[in-house]
UniProtKB/TrEMBL annotation:
Protein species of origin: Kockovaella imperatae
Pfam families named among the record's database cross-references: NmrA
SUPFAM superfamilies linked: NAD(P)-binding Rossmann-fold domains
Domain of life: Eukaryota
InterPro entries: NAD(P)-bd_dom_sf, NmrA-like, NmrA-type_oxidoreductase
All residue ranges annotated as the NmrA-like domain in the record: 2-286
The protein's name in its UniProt record: NmrA-like domain-containing protein
Amino acid sequence: MTVGITGPTGGLGSAIVDEILNRSLVPTSDLILITRDESSAKAKEYAAKGAQVRKGDFGDVSTLGSAFKGVDSLLIMAPGHHAGPHGVKYQIDAIEAAHEAGVSKFYLVSNVAAKAKSDFSPAEIHYEVEQHLEKKGYDFVSLRNGFYLSVVDTFLGNALKSGTLTAPPDGQIAWIDRDELGQAAAHIITGKYKTNGKYVDLVGSKSWTLKDAADILSKVTGKEIKRQEVEPQAFTDGAIAAGVPEMWARLTTAIATCAHDGDWSKTSGLVEEILGHKNKSLEEYIEAQYANKA
Ligand SMILES: NC(=O)c1ccc[n+]([C@@H]2O[C@H](COP(=O)([O-])OP(=O)(O)OC[C@H]3O[C@@H](n4cnc5c(N)ncnc54)[C@H](OP(=O)(O)O)[C@@H]3O)[C@@H](O)[C@H]2O)c1
């Protein structure tokens, strides 16, 4: 069975590919990596290890038929900000080109917060792509990912400078290390770990609030970090006034407001079960990133 992976040189994609290669989860020649740039350092590294590396760009459908030829099972990477306003179209175009080329099983990079209406716009994009697969009746598994631990930096960088973590009222977030997420995904998309159902939550086994994050940062740096709650609109306006592009200001606000609604609160032991060890915790992440930085 051949396994195709789009987005193989990005952060999550390369964690998936590295795990497949390091653990020989499929014969290397059955691994087909579809990237926008076959001449990148990562693409060359994977080709040198024996993977098939092909050019494919969701924004240029003429590249996709040959890219997906001979692929049995395919991971569709969400292109995120790289797709600009075309997030849904790019993924649907890729899915349809893959179906046409004979792909029989799809794995989707989605988000645990995926839903029809959300302040967090990527959640709507993921949901729409999932719904496309549902309507078409294709065989698929949606990997509903949690927030990467590194996203907490969005709040902690400023907090460390000012001594105050300012954000709208939030809720629990089951943060997860991106590499661990990718490693677990590698076992699922190669069929080495069998999941049940079409939706699989790849989230942390514990959850934390931004107040917890502020307290951990205080402990790690020895500098007192207070947690200040502000109204969402005031937070967005303040970020824009400070020079943050409007789209990012809105997304950052939505991280807190959607967390407040419980969108990222789900925890799961699945990633730990697949990898056979505990998830990296928020405490470990903040210690590694911020110790000696006050
Ligand atoms: N869960 C979270 O906390 C979180 C945080 C940030 C983002 N995300 C989402 O998860 C995705 C993966 O995260 P990441 O950290 O790996 O992001 P990333 O490092 O930016 O990688 C995304 C990859 O998507 C591929 N891609 C982009 N545009 C494409 C196009 N037009 N056609 C085909 N492939 C395209 C690229 O792979 P190649 O360069 O190999 O072509 C790119 O490297 C993101 O794209 C975003 O949707 C999730």
